[in-house]
Amino acid sequence: MHSKYFENIVIYLSVLLGCLILGILARMFAISVGADEFTANIVFVAVTLLGILVYGLLSIFIKDLFTLIKQWFFPKEKLVKEPIEKSNDSARIDKIRTEQKQLVADQENNKKAITLKYTQTAFAPYTSDKDLVLLSRNITSYAEKKPISEIQSVEVKKLTSLDLYHFGWNIWNHFRIGNQLQMAAFLKKVFPSILDGVETETIKRHLKDDEQRGIIQIRKDLSEE
Question: Which residues cross the membrane (predicted)?
Fold first, then answer.
């Protein structure tokens, strides 16, 4: 701030000195052409004041004059900046959109990982390694909303229809994909040896029966051990 104040003093003193020099030169010229002392002094004062006035007017209007000249000679400058700003906004929005898509994908992958771990833990004692792999693929297909025609049947032992109902409810409640009738159709396609003779609507109605009975019970959260 002090530097700016000192700078202004130097500028004003320089202008005043310049105007005084012009006044002195004008006075000397007036005397050289035969003017008397009084007239020469008037010329001196008039030229000095005129110089100060001209500087003041230029100081007031110089900024507007510069802006006007700039607009005359560079009319497209603003038009050049706007596309750049829009381009930056577009790039920023695309980055946010990409990050959100990645976040959703990570969440979905995490959901699938939790479900596969639960499925393998629940069914490992009651099916073969081959069928456990098939069951995991079926769960992945369900999570990815693939056609039910891609689902393959799996053989299990020692599990009842109630266990399978509970398993179906737990998977549906975890993903919340489609409706419970679709889950019933999924169960019937995966476990035909147990559910082949049961109507899809009947499976749907009994998905949450006797929550704490059976080998596989109702789970509110599959991520909990």
Answer: 9-30, 42-62
